[in-house]
Amino acid sequence: MRVPMKPCLVLILCALCWMDCAASAMKSEKQTEAPSRPKRVLFIGNSFTYWHGGLWTHLNSLSHAMDPPLAFETAHVVKGGASLEVLWRDTDAASVIARGGWDFVVLQDDIPETSLASFRTYARRFVDAVRKAGACPLLFMAWEYDRLDWIDMHGIAKAHRSVSLELDVDVAPVGMAWSRSRSTYPEVNLYAPDREHPSPAGMYLSLMVIEGILSGVDPRTRDVPVASLRGLEQLATDTLQVLRQVASETILNWSEILERTDGGKP
Q1: Are 27 and 229 in contact (CB under 8 A)?
Q2: Does some domain include residue 208?
Q3: Which residue would you say has higher pLDDT here, 212 or 35?
Q4: Distances (CA, A) of 29 to 50, 68, 237, 242
Q5: Residue 218 is assigned to a structural domain of this protein
Q6: What is the mean pLDDT of residues 58-86?
Q7: Domain range spanning residue 137?
Q8: Who contacts 253 (Cβ-Cβ below 8 Å, separation ≥6)?
Q9: Considering its fold, how many domains does the chain have in total?
Q10: Mean pLDDT of 197-226
């Protein structure tokens, strides 16, 4: 049985395929149409979301630096070391979602810090709350790390694939982008010295994947000056180009994974 693609992913995949054909032309052209209003994005997560100034800050800065500017409006509810379960129980995330006015809510769990059963349960609670508030939920798939090695990237991706299909929710496959970058460009260090949190390069790659899913635009076109992203300014131009390429390839690859029926293995 073929797994049907969700409407959001169909639009994203079509947009990315078109951008692949037109990428060289678009380098010299400006986008001609801006959104009628800023999109409001709420980030919910732990230190993987708030490291290096926070993904919400970088998304805001990136969107304002575009020509014409997309001007995302962003907010956040974060707690160090928290899983979605802890964020649901011990923060005001649910009430902030319920206030409404959001277009997207980005939900970041940290599976090595929790259990797969907890991830499934609280992903559902958050997704239901987000949809009840009239917003679109997006699961931020994080990465593996050595301190808690009971699950690898394959297991993390498989868990997100399962929840994506069960809840009909989109995924920003950040962890898979990290895995692709580490195998293809090992010279680019994505980890901070603790080998767990993101380096500036890791944060930029996370940003490119998430923004690509939110906007449906190929990350390779998001070559705004890195000076506009405070805290990430030290990244070299060639590194930024490589990471945008990895983000683009990963988004397309994840869409293909959702169509496969190979016993649940991503």
Answers
A1: no
A2: yes
A3: 212
A4: 33, 11, 20, 21
A5: yes
A6: 95
A7: 36-259
A8: 173, 176, 180
A9: 1
A10: 96
In a domain, 266, yes or no: no
As a three-state string, the secondary structure of the chain is: CCCCCCHHHHHHHHHHHHHHHHHHHHCCCCCCCCCCCCCEEEEEECHHHHHHHCHHHHHHHHHHHCCCCCCCEEEEEECCCCCHHHHHHHCCHHHHHHCCCCCEEEEECCHHHCCHHHHHHHHHHHHHHHHHCCCEEEEECCCCECCECCCCHHHHHHHHHHHHHHHCCEEECHHHHHHHHHHHCCCCCCECCCCCCECHHHHHHHHHHHHHHHHCCCHHHCCCCHHHCCCCCCCCHHHHHHHHHHHHHHHHHHHHHHHCCCCCCC
pLDDT of residue 256: 75
User: Span 222-239, mean pLDDT?
Assistant: 92
User: What digits encode the pLDDT tens for the residues 35-48?
Assistant: 457 799 999 999 99
Question: Rounded to the nearest 10 degrees, what angle do helices 55-65 and 200-215 cross at?
Answer: 60
- Give the model's pLDDT for residue 244: 98
What local confidence, expressed as pLDDT, does residue 71 receive?
Answer: 87
**Banded pLDDT at 29 (limits 50, 70, 90):** very low
| β-bridge partners, 40 | 73
In degrees to the nearest 10, what's the CA dihedral of 47, 107, 92, 57? 60
Query: Residue 237, CB half-sphere, CA atoms under 13 Å: how many?
Result: 3
CATH number at residue 228: 3.40.50.1110
